[in-house]
């Protein structure tokens, strides 16, 4: 390979910038040219790309978001969109692509790469959702979880001062990873996850017991993708049965995606970016670089997407109720 394009796609995640920096500098170090693509697949279709040099990625390690910008791009799902993207890549002499993103990004990358195998593709898991197989952690998950913890600790202060019950919605359309980690870290009384159905009756029983045990405040974390109808429906259902508490709802929303990447995400981004370029140089394609037992290993994009092993740690799930009595 001689020329690599790099893009970020889907929801942004803290750690994407350190990863872009590592991709650019590792490629340059190895004598390759690098092109930055703006706004993910949209930039491929619209030919919105620029040559990058060592200084293009100066002083970005500490920045949240992504200097390349990102987008969710529907036209790239169509054959026509892919053909236009391919044409633009070929015109520029690009023969390898690093895509940093989550499952939507990888689905696009895999389809594209099967259609146009002469462009090598390497995925980097970048999503706060931590829901890809082949990497114990995805870029941004650590920072996002820390951001959530900081917010919930503050809510706990006021909940405790007022003897209130809070329902807090955290991100994760299909993933309870942030909810579970943040919940354990903040001593949540209950955590509602997409991966594990919690009956409202059980939640009510749990909260009533807490009140009997003289708990001054209670916090229930509800992941976006929980199947009980959303945080407001859960709060309403509980309100009908639990009258000892004043109930409040907080939706943390997109603040969870921003902020300076943690040390963990800066290192992970650097490692994954470095490994992605080295894997391409070694002739790999249609793979994802990931962290497994503190080693960087390759997984096929297919496995990263389809191997839906249950990713939440069993001991964490088990301890939620036990540690919050
Ligand atoms: O995939 C990351 C994520 O932050 C999910 O947790 C969330 O459901 C979704 O993106 C929100 O996407 P958008 O910013 O496009 O509304």
UniProtKB/TrEMBL annotation:
Enzyme Commission identifier(s): 2.7.1.11
Subcellular location: Cytoplasm
Binding site for substrate: 127-129, 164, 171-173, 224, 248, 254-257
Main location: cytoplasm
Pathway listed: Carbohydrate degradation; glycolysis; D-glyceraldehyde 3-phosphate and glycerone phosphate from D-glucose: step 3/4
Keywords: Allosteric enzyme, ATP-binding, Cytoplasm, Glycolysis, Kinase, Magnesium, Metal-binding, Nucleotide-binding, Transferase
Cofactor: Mg(2+)
Residue numbers binding ADP: 21-25, 156, 187-189, 215-217
Catalytic activity as recorded in UniProt: beta-D-fructose 6-phosphate + ATP = beta-D-fructose 1,6-bisphosphate + ADP + H(+)
Binding-site residues for ATP, renumbered to this chain: 11, 72-73, 102-105
Stated regulation of activity: Allosterically activated by ADP and other diphosphonucleosides, and allosterically inhibited by phosphoenolpyruvate.
Catalytic residue positions: 129 (proton acceptor)
Segments forming domain Phosphofructokinase: 3-280
UniProt keyword annotation of Transferase present: yes
KW rRNA-binding (keyword) present: no
Pfam families found in the cross-reference section: PFK
InterPro entries xref list: ATP_PFK (IPR022953), ATP_PFK_prok-type (IPR012003), PFKA_ATP_prok (IPR012828), Phosphofructokinase_CS (IPR015912), Phosphofructokinase_dom (IPR000023), PKF_sf (IPR035966)
Gene3D superfamilies on file: 3.40.50.450, Phosphofructokinase domain
PROSITE patterns named in the record: PHOSPHOFRUCTOKINASE (PS00433)
Residues given in the record as Mg(2+) binding sites: 103
Signal peptide, first to last residue: none
Domain of life, per lineage: Bacteria
Function noted in UniProt: Catalyzes the phosphorylation of D-fructose 6-phosphate to fructose 1,6-bisphosphate by ATP, the first committing step of glycolysis.
HAMAP family: Phosphofructokinase_I_B1
Subunit structure: Homotetramer.
Protein's name in the database: ATP-dependent 6-phosphofructokinase
Lineage: Bacteria, Pseudomonadati, Bacteroidota, Sphingobacteriia, Sphingobacteriales
